[in-house]
Amino acid sequence: MDRFERQYILPGFGTTSQQKLRDSSVLIIGAGGLGCPALLYLSAAGIGKIGIVDGDVVSVSNLNRQVLFGQEHIGLGKAETAASIIQEKYAEITVDAYPFFLNKENILELISAYDLIVDGSDNFPSRYLVNDACMITGKPLVFGAIYQNEGQVAIFNAKGIDSIQYRDLYPTPPAAFEVPNCNETGVLGVLPGMIGTMMAAEAIKFLSGFGETLEDKMLFYNLLNHGSYQIQLSKNPDSESLRPKSPQELLQMDYEHFCGLDIQTDWESVIEITKRDYPSILVDVRAYGEQPEFDELNHVQIPLDELGNTSHQLEPYQQIFLFCQSGTRSLKAVNMLKKHYPDKMIQSIRGGIVEYFRK
């Protein structure tokens, strides 16, 4: 019995739609909470070629929502591991792993090789980069996002440049500290599972011509009460003025700066700088008693809600490096301190404590 029989006997689907899936290719950006369920269902549905791009490795904190992976995969590359698992399950499809992060130098060539893009990234620079690259190359883009108990799904650029794009919703990004990630706010693993599955459904419908897609619409879903609704999207006159229109303009874009993330640094750079005699200080802005305890490096603790009243302690230092659990509160702290010390170098450490121990 053909493993796709239950699909093509579905009224309105048939063998023609199944063949369209077999002839299609999909690139999944991020083998995370959204990408894993999308990958499982797209491969099970019979998509002929699937690419997985992710430069990260599996960590234990991923396992509640990144359902492709288990304990035995901790420390392994996500892209290669996901590709190996899917290829073993479905030997007849082509699965390609790209074990790196997308950037403006590699994205256009990569997405040009696929019919449709599924964006499971979880940060604003990546979302704007993917959107802009899809607009330049004319690729349809399935978008999904989660925040605490809510999720969103949409399909952008479904009919080329005149279609709704991500920038029509968000011509400019919110302040970096205004939108925490899962490391900061938490998430029940079932929510990205549901949203990722909805993303797979949109890709399948679009590629097969079956049913009605979320073109020019966005679906909102609330896990707590199972409430959902759709809104009709419209073109934003400001979106095109901000978007790069050519590969050359894309290369000139600074997405980190555009999204306000040039005030970030990494642990490696901070450790090197603090070894020097230059007056610098490392500040933990988490609340007192917050776990895990951090006694790895010489630092002071000033909780975020006390920072405004105690910032005078930082007066002697020219370089101030701030960290928290995952990097969100420390971004807010940077903005607070910049008002007091506009001439000092003040940076948030990307990924916070989570990233330090992951490394």
TrEMBL record:
It comes from Mongoliitalea lutea. This is Molybdopterin-synthase adenylyltransferase. Belongs to the HesA/MoeB/ThiF family. Keywords: ATP-binding, Nucleotide-binding, Transferase. SUPFAM superfamilies: Activating enzymes of the ubiquitin-like proteins. Homodimer. Forms a stable heterotetrameric complex of 2 MoeB and 2 MoaD during adenylation of MoaD. One of its GO terms (cellular component) is cytosol. GO terms for molecular function: ATP binding; molybdopterin-synthase adenylyltransferase activity; sulfotransferase activity; thiosulfate-cyanide sulfurtransferase activity; ubiquitin-like modifier activating enzyme activity. It comes from the Bacteria.
